[in-house]
Design goal:
It is a multi-pass membrane protein. This is FAD/NAD(P)-binding domain-containing protein. GO terms for molecular function: oxidoreductase activity; transmembrane transporter activity. The chain is an alpha/beta fold. It folds into three domains: 303 residues, Mitochondrial carrier domain (Mitochondrial carrier fold), CATH 1.50.40; 181 residues, 3-Layer(bba) Sandwich (FAD/NAD(P)-binding domain), CATH 3.50.50; 113 residues, FAD/NAD(P)-binding domain (3-Layer(bba) Sandwich). It is built from 19 helices and 17 strands. The strands form four sheets. Strands 1, 2, 3, 4, 5, 6 and 17 form a seven-stranded mixed β-sheet that branches. Strands 8-15-9-10-11 form a five-stranded parallel β-sheet. Strands 12-13-14 form a three-stranded antiparallel β-sheet. A hairpin with a 4-residue loop joins strand 5 and strand 6. Helix 4 packs antiparallel against helix 7. The protein starts with a helix and ends in a 10-residue tail after the last helix. 44% of the residues are buried.
Length: 626
């Protein structure tokens, strides 16, 4: 069997031996009703004898050892598969997803293990785990061993997602901390601390689910356990006729109705202490066993490769995973340029169900273009690395390289930077405007509007980039192609209204200077209803508005970039070079006309601009400082 199987098995068994006494306290706290609940110290005084603190240990040692082995094997294989499919370096998202899959895979072991353990811990006088298991099987059959399985699976998938996520996050944070190389003792201390924190985060994320699971699995006592029945508040002896057992939802509702929210956090303190100790030791044992089984060298080599990859200066760092960034990456790949593309997952057209005017993708979902472009890059080219994450800082090193730091603490170096970050639209300060944006209020009547053709009426809202009457009239003419009648709304701007009145002479348009109090989407698919301060309202087939925008990310300030009057990144030539040498801009963040085809074209221009300087530079290896 694999090393991670045995490392997981042994560390799981050790964790149970260490943590079982506090787990007994936690289960009894969770299972008791509010009147019977006492402090953990009071519970210790009431235990029948010292042996009661190790009650129910046998089943978890066998079961949880297997569970932990299955967990680590499933996690490691799933993470490798996810990274392979996505073609990215391991991200915190893939770590969480792999942990969730691993947790779900343990369901077949965790449900019967938890059931036997909880019932054994509540038994009085103490009974062995084997006796409890036989009793359940004899009275309820194999199906009875999986009672409470749904809530257990939900708890484990969510909990183990956060388990591996928090461990990975804390280890990355400590690895990124400045200082000399760590000694063996320092590394051991880091593993203990990170493992302990992972345990606490895990239980904090799923403790209410664990309370429900415990109550579901222990709500029914069985033969010879009158004390257990009393502890659970069933009001009957085991010999009394059985009542229908409650499901997780019913149990949660009943617990909340009787005791309020506090019932879902009873025992959390004890559990957190136990979680820190157990998982600190568990991770330390896991890492130690992996090393003893010959995996240490392999893991060190993998870490060295990751560090080397992180430290190696790439040709280009691309910030943004939209059309501009993907176009940049594609053209760089065609020249065998090593590039890293950072995709934050934030896109300006996220609200749009369809995009238009994109050859081959007309009326397609924006996500389909992004996924197809990424798939093509991964299938055909080998020099592009995808990183799903947010770049929080870009600066320049003494060697003249650009350094990008992601939100999870990783650092990347490159010789050039292409900012394809996109922009954020600045919503008009009208209540309801944001809810209508992209649904019935459109910024571009090439991208949207055709689907509303033949509308009886349409509107144009001034303000934002429509700060001059001529622009308002220009947008009105575009709207007139799609609607029978167009009204230009000045929204209380009397000066704009006067300029518009003069500009619309001999046009079919009308001007409405009234101030809009609020707006609502509907009632039609692209209709918008405007409510004025005078109490009246009007419904338009759609509304056109050109908002001002803000460049995404903190890079304008960090790199001291100049902006245009409209708020876009200023470029010094047609190739997208900014006022910071070595930094290029591409897409919506550097051009007035913001559309998918133009954004993609800007990526091509940026590659054309940076390729020459890159080729002429010395190819001598540069040592990257940490």
């Amino acid at each position: 069997m694999s090393a991670d199987f045995w490392a997981g098995y042994i560390s799981g068994a050790v964790g149970i031996i260490i943590g079982n006494p506090l787990d007994v306290v936690k289960v009894r706290l969770q299972a008791r009703d509010a009147l019977a609940a006492q402090t953990p110290s009071a519970y210790f005084r009431q235990f029948e004898n010292t042996a009661a603190l190790v009650t129910g240990t046998a089943a978890p040692i066998v079961g949880y050892g297997a569970l932990n082995a299955l967990l680590f094997v499933s996690y490691n294989r799933t993470e490798a598969a996810l990274n392979g499919m996505a073609g990215v370096q391991s991200s915190l998202w893939t770590t969480w997803a792999a942990g969730a899959v691993g947790g779900l895979a343990t369901w077949v072991v965790s449900t019967p293990t938890e059931l036997v353990k909880c019932r054994a811990q509540l038994s009085s006088p103490p009974r062995s785990s084997w006796a409890i298991a036989k009793q359940i099987y004899r009275t309820e059959g194999a199906r009875g061993m999986y009672f409470g399985g749904v809530v257990t699976a939900l708890r484990d998938s969510i909990g183990y997602g956060f388990y591996f996520w928090s461990y990975e996050l804390s280890t990355r944070w400590m690895a990124a901390a400045p200082g000399d190389a760590s000694s063996f003792h320092q590394e051991a201390a880091k593993v203990l601390l990170c493992g302990g924190l992972a345990g606490v985060v895990t239980w904090a994320s799923v403790f209410p689910l664990d309370v429900i699971k415990t109550r579901v699995q222990t709500q029914r006592a069985f033969g010879g356990e009158a004390e257990t029945a009393r502890l659970l508040g069933e009001g009957r002896t085991p010999e009394a006729p059985s009542q229908a057992r409650q499901g997780a939802v019913q149990m949660a509702k009943a617990a909340y109705r009787e005791e309020g929210l506090r019932v879902f956090f009873r025992g959390l303190t004890v559990c957190s202490v136990r979680a820190f100790v157990v998982n600190a030791v568990q991770w330390a044992v896991y890492e130690w066993v992996m090393r003893e089984l010959g995996q240490s060298k392999k893991r060190q080599q993998q870490q060295h490769q990751r560090d080397e990859h992180k430290m190696r200066p790439h040709d280009v760092l691309i910030v943004g995973g939209g059309p501009a960034g993907l176009s940049t990456a594609t053209y760089l790949a065609r020249q065998l340029r090593a590039a890293v593309l950072f995709d934050s997952g934030v896109y300006r057209n996220a609200r749009a169900e369809h995009m238009h005017g994109v050859l081959g993708f007309d009326h397609a979902a924006p996500a389909s273009l992004r996924s197809k472009a990424r798939a093509d890059l991964l299938a055909r080219y080998e020099t592009t690395t995808f990183v799903d994450g947010v770049v929080t800082r870009i600066d320049k090193t003494p060697q003249g390289l650009f350094r990008a730091v992601t939100g999870d603490g990783r650092t990347w170096h490159g010789r050039r930077v292409v900012l394809a970050t996109g922009v954020t639209d600045i919503m008009a300060p009208i209540p309801g405007f944001d809810a209508c944006w992209g649904r019935s209020v459109f910024h571009c009547l090439y991208c949207h509007g055709y689907e509303s053709r033949g509308a009886a009426t349409a509107g144009v809202l001034t303000g934002g980039l429509v700060a001059q009457a001529a622009l308002g009239v220009h947008m009105a003419w575009m709207a007139k192609q799609l609607a029978d009648r167009v009204t230009i709304y000045a929204h209380g701007d009397e000066a704009m209204a006067r300029d518009l009145e003069a500009a619309i002479d001999k046009t079919p348009f009308v001007v409405d200077a009234r101030r809009i109090a609020r707006m609502e989407h509907g009632p039609g698919e692209t209709e918008v209803t405007l409510y004025f301060e005078d109490g009246t309202s009007v419904t338009e087939g759609f509304l056109a508005h050109g908002p001002r925008t803000k460049v995404n990310g903190p890079f304008v300030e960090q790199l001291s970039l100049d902006l245009t009057d409209s708020g876009d990144i200023k470029t010094v030539n047609a190739l997208g070079e900014t006022t910071c040498p070595g930094v290029y801009a591409a897409g919506d963040n550097m051009q007035m006309m913001k559309a998918v085809p133009l954004a993609a074209a800007a990526g091509v221009m940026a590659v054309a601009g940076l390729s020459g300087p890159l080729s002429s530079e010395s190819q001598v290896e540069v040592e990257v400082e940490q």
